[in-house]
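Hi support team,

I've been running sequence recovery on a batch of backbones for a student project. Most finish fine, but this one hangs at about 90% for roughly twenty minutes before it completes. I'm not sure whether the input is malformed or the queue is just slow. I've pasted the structure tokens below so you can try to reproduce it. Let me know if you need the job ID as well.

Thanks,
M.K.
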């Protein structure tokens, strides 16, 4: 995905500023009772009204930046090419195409090109992760039943 290749880790100054801003915003969010809030841009004295969920998202972005993590935002309804979808899932494009054609992940066709909704990829990724966790739990139980943890 183009945006994934352009992500850069925040430098130390950005991390420090993000941490300070995050802590301030977090305290402010704890005191808010409304569904929205008004913020002011100090340099321009411009006042902006924002939904509370937007401020919570901003707090998450600041926290990740303070931790030195690069951040990217993508609308949930974004349609991805098979290459971009494969990069998101960290698999090959041919493997992704097999998943699409087998019905594991819903997709649409635009001409002869497949397109995948980002939210469908997230659903698939979460489902696979849950299945993997369940299999690990089952393996651990079988090992316990066989006494493999006893020494």
């Amino acid at each position: 995905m183009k945006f994934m290749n352009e992500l850069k880790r925040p430098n130390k100054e950005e991390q420090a500023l993000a941490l300070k801003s995050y802590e301030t915003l977090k305290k402010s969010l704890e005191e808010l009772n409304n569904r929205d809030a008004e913020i002011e841009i100090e340099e321009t004295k411009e006042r902006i009204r924002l939904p509370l969920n937007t401020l919570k998202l901003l707090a998450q972005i600041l926290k990740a930046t303070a931790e030195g993590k690069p951040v990217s935002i993508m609308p949930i309804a974004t349609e991805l090419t098979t290459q971009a979808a494969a990069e998101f899932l960290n698999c090959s494009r041919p493997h992704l195409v097999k998943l699409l054609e087998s019905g594991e992940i819903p997709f649409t066709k635009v001409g002869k090109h497949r397109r995948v909704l980002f939210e469908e990829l997230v659903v698939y990724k979460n489902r696979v992760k849950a299945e993997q966790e369940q299999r690990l739990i089952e393996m651990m139980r079988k090992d316990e039943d066989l006494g493999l943890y006893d020494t």
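--
Follow-up from support: It reproduced on our side and the slowdown came from queue contention, not your input. Helices lie at 2-5, 12-31, 52-66, 82-89, 93-101, 118-145. No action needed from you.
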